[in-house]
Specification:
The protein is α+β, with helices and mostly antiparallel strands and about 90 residues long. The chain is built from four helices and two strands; from the N terminus they run ααββαα.
């Protein structure tokens, strides 16, 4: 039987703002993998891949390129989002 997808819950603006302030508008993977401290246009990724879990501890800021890689399960970035969230926040 196919696994039922969880419904995306809108991210409260207050949580998004808090996360972007804490990360300095930097992609967690850019910082962790390349020591790239440039500010980026970011998307918020769910560490546990549950779009209904908007707890701050479950969110990580990623640039578009890394967000795509995470969802493609690229071996280079697979599993990094949880580790990197500790380094950047």
């Amino acid at each position: 039987m196919a696994k039922k997808k969880k419904k995306r819950v809108p991210l409260p603006k207050s949580i998004e703002t808090e996360l972007l302030i804490k990360c300095g508008r930097r992609c967690a993977l850019c910082v962790y993998l390349k020591n790239d401290l440039d500010t980026k246009n970011l998307q918020i990724a769910h560490i546990d891949n549950d779009p209904s879990n908007n707890d701050l501890d479950n969110l990580v800021p990623l640039c578009l390129d890394h967000h795509i890689e995470i969802h493609q399960k690229n071996p280079i970035s697979k599993g990094f989002s949880h580790q990197v969230s500790r380094f950047t926040l």
